[in-house]
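$ run holo --ligand "glutamine" --emit tokens
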Amino acid sequence: MGSTKYVFVTGGVTSSLGKGIVSASLGRLLQARGYKVTIQKLDPYINVDPGTLNPYEHGECYVTDDGAETDLDLGHYERFLDIQTSQANNVTTGRIYQSVINKERRGDYLGKTVQVIPHITDEIKRRITLLGEKDEYDIIITEIGGTVGDIESLPYIEAVRQLRWELGVENTVFVHLTLVPYLSASGELKTKPTQHSVKVLLESGIQPDVLVLRAEHELDKDLRKKVALFCNVELEAVIQSIDVSTIYEVPLLMKEEGLDVMVLKKLQIEPKESPDLKEWKKFVDRLKSSKKEITIALVGKYVELYDSYKSIIESLTHAGAMNKVKVKVDCIHSEEISVDNVSEKLEGYDGILVAPGFGDRGVEGKIISVTYARENKVPFFGICLGLQCAIIEFARNVLGYEDAHSTEMMNNTRYPVIDLMEEQKGVTKKGGTMRLGGYACSLQKGSLVQQAYQTEMVRERHRHRYEFNNDFLETFREHGMVPTGINPESGLVEIMEQPGHPWFVGTQFHPEYRSTALNPHPLFIAFIKAAIKNSK
Ligand code: GLN
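-- output --
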């Protein structure tokens, strides 16, 4: 197809309209037509990456294989498109400014006054087009975070306005997502917020080509005509995005609405064959038609915000569909779990998952949950801090090391079963300094994990500073907690299991970053299988 074309997605009226899901759905549709597609996210905040953000702020931090800590929307992109994203797929204002300031300090601007326009906007444009440089993609979707009209979004809007001029109208399309609220008192859908939001874009010199209207009720022809007329778009370019029971239905809805056809038309591409969504439909059908339900307790400390454990919850959903069961996930606050109430809190669950995390808040509740899972033979999955808690639990309650702990929580423990990695010891800076991204892991033959993966070498993504302290390895092995996944280069323990327990697996890496709708993660599939077996 020659040079790469760009779809710019903006949002208006309010945040949380599901821009990420609409972008990912559009990506899936274009990909299903045979185009090579990727998606990038521009985030208007000053943090260089979301790695230093508390999950309460923006939900989970997603990690790419190349070790970038990114916005959780990249997780949606990977789960919908079954592609790998990278550092280049997520850019924040902080990163943009950091590069510009570094260039200024090096003297690259030769004494010029460094300004938002052109220097910041040039750097934004450079980052946007970076992905297209190698001609790897036919179409790149660029999602601009935030809401138009926000002060911090302005440089991004200006940058994409300029890009349209530079790349040509035939190579760029603007998709704008807004909200059509329903006023129940008068029983009406209101278009005024959409009109205003388009006006705000027009003030910045951008006329959207396609409008995606988020609504709780069907938009009739008259309403669509009104929006088309007042917002200056084609009638067929007014697309409705109505609430659905699962996000995975959105691509199917967008296909019905013709979003992909309209985008291709604007990009002056003659649509190749119609999208092949057979596998996708099969997945959605399974998701919706599964009757049997199993329940998983997700023990964590950021449970007030569902987005904090986004990838884990999605991975459980994918694995549920694969196993033809509905998975109900109950998030349980680890701070509220004590020895006295643990049976009450965790009784009846078909599986227990102890979540990743940082710091000592809620750790004891996690450790108590592990004891419950181990003693009651409930399928257990520990991820990152979840594995570390399982190791501490085993040390204290099976090996009798009373004050065993991670040095993250207790520096002077006599039994530092989890300790800072050697390469982390001199690190004082916070951002981007953990063990991040994909590492190889070799699996022990015949172990639960090897049976699940059906292979002996895997690559999984990490995000942590601490690790199992190998000084204790032999004692653990002798007493029934065995390493079944080892990093072949460093010898670090990546997975532990407890043979004799129906399904007890802890991983130092985060398998949830690799589960996609059409390729559910083997460990989640196996965990759900064990939970089904355990369910009465
Ligand atoms: N806090 C732990 C560490 O840094 C675990 C991190 C995590 O769960 N992602 O090693």
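-- notes --
The CA atoms of residues 125 and 159 lie 6 Å apart.
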